[in-house]
Every structure is written in C-alpha cells, then in structure tokens.
Amino acid sequence: MDTPKTPDCEDKRLASLQALNILDTPFEERFERITRFASQLFDVPIALVSLIDQDRQWFKSAQGLDVRETSRAISFCGHTILSRNILTTQDALSDTRFYDNPLVTGDPHIRFYAGCPLHTESGMALGTLCLIDRRPRELNDNDLEALRDLALVIEREINQPELNIIDAVTNLSNRHSFLALAEKGLALCSRSATPVSLVFIELDRGEEGDAEEESAEQKRMLLKFGEYLNSRLDQSALVARLAKNQFAVLLIDASVAEATLAVMQFNTAVEELGQQEKWSHALRFDFGIAEFNSDRHTTVEKLLADADLAMYDSKKRKRYAAMKV
C-alpha cells in the first residue's frame, strides 16, 4: 500500500483549511444535496465531500458511509490532493497503490474510486468530492466533466458560504440552484440515455396557506415535507422549493410510470405523517410529471413547464370529477 505523500505547501494548506472553520461541523444540506445528487447521477453507493486534515480524512458530507473520518495514511483522497487532476482507479484490487489498503480488503470494500480535488480561491488543496463503488467501474470523459462541475459547486459552497442557494424554511435547494444542478444532470443523463422524470408539486395547505406570513406550524409542515421529499420519495436525486407552495423533484432512472408509482407511495407516507403530527390543516398536494426528452426539453425550464402543465391538467380532471359526483 502506498501512503499518500505530503504536499510541498502542507503548512499553508493546513492553515487555509483551518481558517475556513469547517472541520468538525455538522452535516449541512448545501453539501448533502450535492453528494445525494452525485450518488444518484453516477449510480454509486457512496459519495463524499472529504477534507484532508493533518492526520485524518474527515467527511463534511457522506452518502452511504456511516463513519465521519478515517486515517489520512490509508485515504485515497490523500493521493488525490497531490494533483489538480481527477484521480481514478477502476479496480483497486488491481492497483498497486491500493490493492492491500484496509479500505479495500475490509469495509467499505472499495473497488472503484474517482476523486476530484477541491481548492480554496488561492489554490490550496482542501480535499475532494469523491465517488466510491464496491464493484469495478469506469468513467468516460462526459462523466469526468460532470464530476468536475459538481466539484466546482462544492468549492463555491466552501469558499463563498454566503451564496443564497438554499431555501431558508425547508433547507432545500432554491429555484436558482436547482436549475443550475439539474442542467448538468440532464446533460449527463442525455448522453448516457438514462431516463429522467421531473415531478412538479404544488401544496394545498388550506386557507391558512394563503396568508402573507407563514405560521410556526406551517414552517414545521414545510420543513417536514422537504425532509420527506429527500428521504421518502424513491429515486429523488435533486429536490427544490421553487416558490411558496411549489416544489420540484428530479428522479434519475425513472420513467413517468415509475415516477407516478413513487409519488403515490410518497403520498401515503405524507398522509401517515399528517396523522402523527395532528396538524390543524391536512398536508395535501397535487403533482404533474414530465419525462425528459432532449429534443423537446432544451432547457430545464421547458421540462418544468411540461411538468407544471401536467399538474394543471390533473387538477382540472379532479375538479371535473368532483362536479359530477
């Protein structure tokens, strides 16, 4: 096993990392949304934002991994920060640098690894955005470009935490950040012929939902609803609050039929949540789904518009059915 070398500028690098005051802080949605998206987009069980401290590798975000840190001496990311290039190994068991690494021979049984280095604005290496699989894999040039793009988003989050990209009430992406990330995801899925569906959701929270200011109960409802969109809607890769009562969810590797089934199951979970919470107004929603077509949907906005139209048609049919009863 090769132990990662120490960069020539190690003292300055560590000083830059410490100055960010990011080590040993809780998970944050602004990073979690990227690793969730990366895990779905690249179909890998593990996606991490890893920061390389003096003697440890510490995870600011971790999908598919329960630990928060490992030794730097056995880290793959310790090797990655030595260059500005993406480091990949298709099969760690066949790689002389890693074949006997305890992270390969034991948990989490790494076979495939791809890490893109993260830097400060002054160019100091901090860590990586990395993808890990337990089976051999290979990334093509389009995949590598998409990984770089996501790493740039992480870099902006680290270096410019004041950027307004998260909805303050739900902790979901806002419309602006959703459009930027969805564009990258759709481009990659188009090239790999992976089906993608977009779900447009509009909440109906009763008359109180029309009030200018949201009550404490409404904010709790919105926060819970956002949490459920992230955790209970199958194949949800990217979730956003677009407007006061409007949400969007990008589902990777999902046809309209599969997305519809996922939303119906999600609705059951939301109904059960309402029964547990005993809110004064039921948390109901309407939805529409549009499947991505690269010829028709040349922008994310066009895909959103089709999903919005599908939701409107669904609401119209429900009103018509209610009038006939």
TrEMBL record:
SMART domains: GAF, GGDEF. It holds the Pfam family GAF. Residues 194-325 form the GGDEF domain. InterPro entries: GAF, GAF-like_dom_sf, GGDEF_dom, Nucleotide_cyclase, Rev_trsase/Diguanyl_cyclase. This is Phytochrome-like protein cph2. Transmembrane segments: none annotated. It comes from Zhongshania aliphaticivorans. It comes from the Bacteria.
